[in-house]
Write a structure and sequence with these properties.
Blueprint (H helix, E strand, L loop, with lengths): L2 E3 L4 H10 L4 E3 L17 E4 L9 E3 L3 E5 L4 H6 L1 H6 L1 H8 L4 H6 L2 H7 L6 H7 L3 E6 L2 E6 H4 E3 L2 E2 L6 E8 L6 E7 L10 E10 L2 E10 L6 E2 L1 H7 L6 H12 L12 H19 L3
Parallel strand pairs: 1-3, 2-3
Antiparallel strand pairs: 4-5, 5-10, 6-7, 6-10, 8-9, 11-12, 12-13, 13-14
The structure holds flavin-adenine dinucleotide.
Length: about 280
């Protein structure tokens, strides 16, 4: 019979995780339960849902700290998120429907680490970092480094994701997000892209582009970012950015979309982001 424990504190959750590396950690269960009947019964379950320390959103001076166990509905409705991280609120609104948003957590999206995880390009564009906890203590990793390949991450066998730390963007930084799927609601993404673009004196000082469903993992488009920096946010720059992007993404054809369509959409999105950054 499967053992089941619902720790009330983060310390207990960490101790259980370390003591039972073969047990399944579950948060909202919206990823894990989908295939539950196709997998062997777990030896044991550590259920994080009752761990209050993992849930909630706090603003400090220059960051917004989001507990890994925070469900999407709370992310979507939080005033600081809506004001300062509107692209994260927008992604939260597009993750499944209300039932999934009420149960699915930001930590679950991050650890599942699917190339179509909707929050992941946003976390890349916002330059978020993660606090990971284990019996060895707490360490911080840039989200950019966390996802190492197709559904693989830096998370060690005895670690939990505790907190997502997002720097509060400068109000002048333009943020953008777009998910493209087969329909407006409850769609698995064909392509999604997020951007943070800082224009100073009519020139793009820096840009961060996060993209999903165009490679084995969510990626920062470094070549596209380099192509944007130091140039005016206009159509010429947009074309240069799109050309650079083509060299660094590797979309595939699958049941949801075709590789050439994904490339074209990804290019259109970054071009639009660049041009919009130049608008008042
Ligand atoms: C009908 C449906 C629609 C969906 N639509 C979307 C969508 O539009 N966009 C999208 O991106 N996703 C979608 N999803 C996927 C899912 O809802 C999200 O990825 C959600 O954020 C997962 O969170 P969870 O808490 O339910 O994860 P769980 O299923 O509980 O866990 C997922 C993984 O994360 C691990 N984990 C969870 N929390 C932690 C932690 N704190 N530390 C370490 N490991 C942890 C678990 O061990 C497991 O490996 C959908 C799912 C369903 C069933």
């Amino acid at each position: 019979m499967t053992a089941y424990v619902r720790p009330a504190s983060l310390a207990d959750a960490v101790a259980l995780r370390a003591a039972h590396p073969d047990w399944t950690v579950i948060a909202g269960g919206t990823d894990l339960m989908v295939n539950a009947t196709h997998r062997a019964e777990p030896v044991g379950i550590v259920d994080l849902w009752g761990c209050a320390e993992l849930a909630g959103i706090v603003r400090d001076s220059d960051t917004i700290r989001i507990g890994a166990g925070t469900p999407w509905l709370d992310v979507l409705h939080h005033a600081e998120v809506r004001t300062h991280l509107p692209i994260l609120a927008a992604a939260a609104r597009e993750i499944g429907a209300l039932q999934i948003q009420a149960r699915g957590t930001i930590g679950g999206n991050i650890v599942t680490s699917s190339p179509v995880g909707d929050s992941l390009p946003v976390l890349l564009a916002l330059d978020a970092s993660l606090e990971l906890v284990s019996p060895r203590g707490r360490r911080t990793v840039a989200y950019r480094d966390f996802c190492t390949g197709y559904r693989t991450t830096l998370l060690a066998a005895d670690e939990l994701v505790a907190t997502v730390v997002v720097p509060v963007p400068d109000p002048a930084t333009r943020l953008a997000w777009r998910k493209v799927g087969t329909r407006a609601a409850q769609s698995i993404s064909k392509v999604m892209a997020a951007a943070a673009i800082h224009v100073d004196g009519g020139v793009i000082a820096w840009a961060r582009f996060g993209l999903g469903a165009v490679a084995a993992r969510p990626i920062r488009a470094a070549a596209a970012e380099a192509a944007a920096a130091g140039r005016a946010p206009d159509a010429t720059t947009a074309r240069a950015v799109a050309a650079a992007l083509a060299g660094e993404i590797t979309p595939i054809s699958d049941v949801r979309s075709a590789a050439d369509y994904r490339l074209e959409v990804a290019q259109s999105l970054v071009m639009r982001f660049v041009i919009n950054a130049g608008r008042p």
